[in-house]
Design goal:
With about 220 residues, the chain is an alpha+beta fold. The protein has helices at about 15-20, 75-80, 105-110, 115-140, 145-160, 175-180, 185-195, 215-220, and strands spanning about 25-30, 35, 45-50, 50-55, 65-70, 75, 90, 95-100, 160, 165-170, 200-205, 205-210. The protein folds into two domains: about 1-135, Jelly Rolls; about 140-220, Arc Repressor Mutant, subunit A. The strands form three sheets. The chain has a four-stranded antiparallel β-sheet. A four-stranded antiparallel β-sheet has the order 2-7-4-5. Strand 11 (about 200-205) and strand 12 (about 205-210) form a beta hairpin.
Length: about 220
Amino acid sequence: MLSRSFVLRGLPREELEGLASTMRRRTYRRGEAVFHQGDPGQVLHVVYGGRLKIVLPGQHGEEALLTIVGPGDLFGDLALLDGAPRSASVVALEPVETAVLSRAEFLGLLRRSPAVVDGLLATLAQTIRRLSEEVADLTFLDLHARLAKKLLDLSETHGQAADGSIEIQVPLTQEELASMIGATRPRVNKLLGLYEDRGAIARRGRLILILKPELLRGWALA
């Protein structure tokens, strides 16, 4: 699994195997928090199975969903780099298994491995680009376009082909989907119903199937 990590895959196979043997496994139930915003940053997590959401909690129980991570992704690196408290909370969307690396082990790995530094810098750059794009979307796109674009993004990063459609393999509630695009659940529910009526998507419980991505692309660019 470590070889799937964009940050760690530059390590030689022997070092990856040695690293995997020293990392401790942890499991989390659906809805369980891995850590909360403000907690001390003590370990780095690499996702072995399942998906998690990274969120900024509000004062009244609401949350802004920043991104979703899955197998091969790592999280918790920012607090290890600067020693500051956790900048966000991380919650399991389904049963999850991670492997953890202590701050001392992670910093030691960075000191001796330029390949890991390169991978980490590239990942941080991608995160900055993604957040910049999302700020632009919130500023310049209406809700209809933002939702269509987000569904396309999710289908690319967490989608799986199924009978001519693409199933987004993330069990998101409508409230969670709304929190990703700066909207409310009722407005997202209304738009999802419209997309379904137009044949662009189908819903299977909390999973969404993309049936006509070309329609979503058109709405995202409108």
